[in-house]
Amino acid sequence: MRSEDKKYVDYIIEKTVEVLSVDSPTGYTKEAADHVCKAYKELGYEPAVTVKGGVLVDLTPDISSDSMNDGGILLEAHIDTLGAMVAEVKGNGRLKLTPLGGLNPNNAEAENCRVITRRGKKYEGTFQLANASIHVNGKYDDTKRSYDDMEVVLDEAVNCAEEVIALGIMPGDIVAFEPRTRITESGYIKSRFLDDKLSVGILLGFAKWLKEEGIAPKRKVYHHITVYEEVGHGASGTVPADVTEILSVDMGCVGEGLGCGEHQVSICAKDSRGPYNYDVVGALIDAAKSAEIDFAVDVYPYYGSDADAALAAGYDVRHGLIGAGVYASHGYERSHIDGVANTFALLKAYLT
Predict the structure, then answer these.
(1) Does the predicted model carry a pTM greater than 0.90?
(2) Using one digit for the tens of pLDDT, what is the confidence trace for 231-284?
(3) Quick check: bond before 294 cis, omega within 30?
(4) Helix, coil or strand: residue 201
């Protein structure tokens, strides 16, 4: 990490931990959006909450895209996370869930969670296999982990549906899972929902750097902290009229067949929806090489981004995708401070 970047990377980690502590499953993101708005205001910006519930910020209000050949660029990261919703209050007082986004039940078994009622009351519970005691259930090993075979066991003295309903819990209530955030002495960042709250922290760090260092980017820059990304339409609206490029800052994939590691920034050339703009990918590679940034270029086999959603909605823009390397996506995820620093450095090199 460059010495001059350390205070900004420290700030990124601080803000990431803060945002991770605010529950924001898809469809329940107001508290997290308010938290991010406050952070931008503290940096001296004027964020606006969109009708959809995201946060839009003009980082360069004194720059006009009219005089710039490349037009404006919109950097996007999403504040919504995986989670669940109560689908049924069962007769035994347990809760059947339906997922919000791609929360795999295999990755959530025995995880602590919070049920958030319509009145804002929160109840603790644990997501378990039905009949979860190995000493009782002879089919424990053979039972597929699915939402039909798993349930939330509330930490309340309830034994029937009527007692649960009396607490104010009903179908449609949000279920948020414990992030279990840890920063290790060796610099690893471990938590659920680094996808994509780590990138929200990175964008806040970039905004802080621009403001405090008095940097004038080469082009007009906006930030859009989106919601509903985990269900596919986060960035399908709210693209300013002068924007000609969208750069999604999301998690970089780490796994078999890919080159990226947790200490690097990943530049995505193609995901499951198709290739990213050839010129944008090339320019990102050139910027990374010029600044001697540790990076990898990869093809993600099972992935879609906010930038994809914007193009699918019909916006006539170029698009790209970068992100710090994250292992175990949609599970208990892990990245490293070096990956954060390299992603931050690439944004600086590409935009200024």
Answers:
(1) yes
(2) 999 999 999 999 999 999 999 999 999 999 999 999 999 999 999 999 999 999
(3) no
(4) helix
- Give, to the nearest 10 degrees, the angle between helix 278-290 and helix 337-351: 110
Q: Distance from CA of residue 140 to its chain's centroid?
A: 33
Residue among 325, 194, 202 at smallest CA distance from 262: 325
Helix%, strand%, coil% for the chain, nearest 5:
30, 30, 40
Give the residue numbers marked as catalytic.
229
311's tokens: 């193009």
Instruction: Give the pairing of strands 221-226 and 72-78.
Output: parallel
Bridge partners of 246, per DSSP, are 74, 319
Looking up tokens 């803000």 gives 15
Beta carbons of 157 and 124 less than 8 angstroms apart:
no
How far apart (Å, rounded) are the C-alpha atoms in residues 117 and 138?
A: 35
Give the Cα separation of 12 and 48 in Å (integer). Answer: 21
The residue among 96, 91, 114 whose CA lies nearest residue 162 is: 91
Q: Are 253 and 329 in contact (CB under 8 A)?
A: yes
